[in-house]
Structure formats: structure tokens, C-alpha cells
Amino acid sequence: MLCQYADRPGAFLQHFHNVYEMIYVEAGAIEIHIQEKNYPAGPGSLIFLNKLEEHSLTVRSEPYRRYFAQFSPEDLEHLLPEPKLRAVFINRPDGFCPVFDLSPVSEQAQMLCAGLLTEYRTPASPDKMGRLYSSALLTQLLILCYRLHGALFPLPKRPVNHAVFEIRRYIERHFTEEINISALAQEYFLSPCYLSHCFREWIGCSPKQYVMRNRISSAKELLLHTALTVTEVAQRCGFSDANNFIRSFKQECRATPGQYRRRLTAEQSIE
Fold first, then answer.
1. Measured between alpha carbons, how far is 93 from 91 in angstroms, rounded to an integer?
2. Where are the extended beta strands (E) located within the chain?
3. Cβ burial, residue 32 (10 Å; 0-12/13-18/19+)
4. Which of 113, 139, 153, 197 is most buried, judged by most C-beta within 10 A?
């Protein structure tokens, strides 16, 4: 888990982190752009970003101060064992808004964010309770959010077979391998139709699309942070060949892998 506090003006260019992210706006106002949609966020706003979502933000009112934390899928499961609370990071049904107003409980929310930051900055304690304490603070923050906005949490409208959760986890851990969705559904005693319906309602895309989005997200990270060739990136991310990778990447990102790498490298040099 990475937790930081920052005071920064200006605009943040389109980017992504192959991790889940949470932003708490302490002061100022911003507009955050996620997947071609804009969301305003003022003081007391808590924002949740899926690990597959590119985003950018523009500061509309200064001074802008915020806390933010990033979580790998494994960290998120360990720190937030309650699926209802994890839903705001993972589930993306139609109409979901990732910005929640916590201004009625801003004092408590800010205290919990400050506690997370302090725990992150503190060296590992001899009692090895730091992770448990961080989990308690994060859980309290999400419960505050749930109590204020429970109806807005992206939860399935009907009970979902637990195997669907297991299949999502399996895809996140094995997306670089060949995955047969029908065979995977049968392995968990589900019909492919039921699995696809639950995925679309819960995650906002089909299981096949979820595999592809995880591959593309991993490819973006490699393109930006390594010098691997396009062919090597394709192999590492589970694509059958470079041409298939380029075609799929362009369809998802509206740019070839090479164009995407050059654009993000240029934007980082500007920052």
C-alpha cells in the first residue's frame, strides 16, 4: 500500500496506475476525467479508481490538497476483507459515480486518512501490527462512506454465486495465460451465460473483455516503465502474437503500442 499527502496545483495529464487508487480531497476543487466522463470533486470528496481506468484531473480551485493511496489487488483483499466495501474499487456497472461526498463527516474522514499516512510513514513496528492497524483505519473510512451512501455502492442487485468472485480473482492472477471462459465457468459449476451476465452487471464488462483489459493494462505499464519491444510486451501479457496485440491495443486505446509509449514518455518529460 502506498499512501501520500500532497499539495499540487495545475493539471494532471491522462495516466493510469496498474493498481487501485483512492483520493480524498482535503481542500480545493478538482474535475477528474475517467473513461471519457468528467466528475467534479470538492473538499470532503472521496474518489475511487479502478486499476483498469485511465484518468486525468484539473484543479479548479486552489490550494488543492489531497491524500491518496494505492493498492495492489492483493493489498486490497487483505486490507478490506469485506466484499461490500471493496466494491467501490472493483465494480463498474452502468451509471456508477466514483466520487462520494463525505463532507458531513469530513473531520472523521480526514483523521482516518491522516492515520493511514502516519502508519505508512512509520517503520515496521516490533509487534507487526501495522498492517492490521491500516486495515482497521481503511475499513472505518469505507464504513463511513457506506453509511452515508450505501445505496450508491456498486453492489449486485441480486445474490451472486461466490464462484463469480473466485473467477474474477482467477482472471486477475492468470490473465497472461490462455483462458477458456466456457471451460472456466464449467469448472466452477456455472453456465457461461450466467457468468457473463453477472460479470456485466457487477464489473461492467464480459469475462472475455475483463481478460483483455487486464492484459492491456499490464501492457501499458510495461510500455511505460521498460524498454521491452512491442513483441516482448505482447508475449509477457498473454497475446498470441505482436499483430494481435497491436490490433487489440489500438481498438482499446485508439493508438498503437508505439504511439502510446511515445505519447506518455513525452508527457512525463513535460511534467
1. 6
2. 2-7, 11-15, 20-34, 37-41, 45-49, 55-71, 99-101
3. buried
4. 113
- Rounded Cα gap, residues 194 and 18, in angstroms: 28
C-alpha span between 253 and 38 (Å, rounded): 18
Would you state the cell numbers that stand for residue 224, as one nine-digit string?
A: 511505460
Contacts of 248 (CB under 8 A, 6+ apart): 212, 215, 216, 239
Sign of CA dihedral 153, 158, 159, 160: negative
Environment class of residue 207 by beta-carbon count within 10 Å: exposed (0-12), middle (13-18) or buried (19+)? buried
DSSP 54-66: -EEEEEEEEEEEE
Q: What is the DSSP letter of 10?
A: S
Query: Between vectors from CA 186 to CA 181 and to CA 187, what angle results, nearest 5°?
Result: 95
> Which DSSP symbol is given to 72?
-
Cα–Cα distance for residue pair 78/132, rounded to 1 Å: 9
Cα separation of 106 and 103, whole Å?
5
Please give the Cα distance from 135 to 221 (Å, whole number): 27
| pLDDT value of position 225 | 87
Name the strand (E) or helix (H) holding 264: helix 257-270
Total-model pTM:
0.85
Q: Which three cell numbers stand for residue 237?
A: 501479457
Cβ neighbourhood burial of 125 (10 Å; 0-12, 13-18, 19+):
exposed
- Measured at the CA of 227, the angle between CA 223 and CA 229, to 5 degrees, comes to 75
Strand runs labelled E in 35-135: 37-41, 45-49, 55-71, 99-101
